[in-house]
Amino acid sequence: MKRLLLYLSLTVSMFLVSCSSSKKMTTTVKEYNVETMGVGVDGTYLVRVTDYFRTTDERIYLDGLKKDAVHGVIYSGIPAGNGSIKQPALLNKDTSLEGAEEALNNFFEQKLYNNFINSVVNSSKKVVKIQGSKDYKISVILSVNKDELRKYLIDNKIIKPLDYLF
Fold first, then answer.
1. Which residues does 100 contact at the CB level (< 8 Å), separation at least 6?
2. Which residues, 6+ apart, have CB-to-CB distance to 164 below 8 Å?
3. Interval 129-144: pLDDT, tens
4. Pairing between β-strand 44-53 and β-strand 33-39 as defined by DSSP bridges
5. Distance CA 129, CA 91 (A)
């Protein structure tokens, strides 16, 4: 009886620990793939964004892919490829200002990232059903206005202006 009680209490405590949540910033932990497709007109990035969704509803997945593209420009930068050099993230330890995470959470919650997507290449949409899953792997090519995004982040005191180096 003691063993059963001990086993039950250990199981319950492990369950509670595994289900407990820690405070995580939703904007920093995301899984998606951003691939450089080339350089657009001055101040824009042309990128292919790939993510997984449970739906093929275009409104939902396009919004998610736009968010991923802007998130990638802000947090991880754009990788080199297709004749382009690697572009650093707009937000890093050197450029971030105090309170940036909360301001960026609000930025993404209010869907302000839509203002920095110039265009979606409709012919680039690719939807693949994942075998044995309810998920779809969806990718699309987007144009992100990096210069306007940087200006917005500076104006809202999320990142330092470029002249902080001098």
1. 91, 158, 159
2. 95
3. 999 999 999 999 999 9
4. antiparallel
5. 34
Locate 122 and state its tokens. Answer: 């409709």
Cβ-count burial 95-108 (b if 16+ within 10 Å, e if not): bbeeebeeebeebb
One-letter amino acid for residue 89 of the chain: A
User: Domain limits of the chain?
Assistant: 24-165
- Residue (of 30, 31, 38) closest to 121 by Cα position: 38
Question: Residue 74, Cβ neighbours under 10 Å: how many?
Answer: 27
pLDDT tens per residue, range 46-97 = 999 999 999 999 999 999 999 999 999 999 999 988 878 888 999 887 777 7
DSSP string covering the chain, please?
Answer: -HHHHHHHHHHHHHHHHHH------TTT----EEEEEEE-STTEEEEEEEEEES---HHHHHHHHHHHHHHHHHHT-B--BTTB--B--SS-TTTB-TTHHHHHHHHHHTTGGGGGEEEEEEEEEEEEEPTTSS-EEEEEEEEEEHHHHHHHHHHTTSB--GGGG-
Residue 33, both tokens? 């793939």
Beta strands 33-39 and 136-145 are unpaired
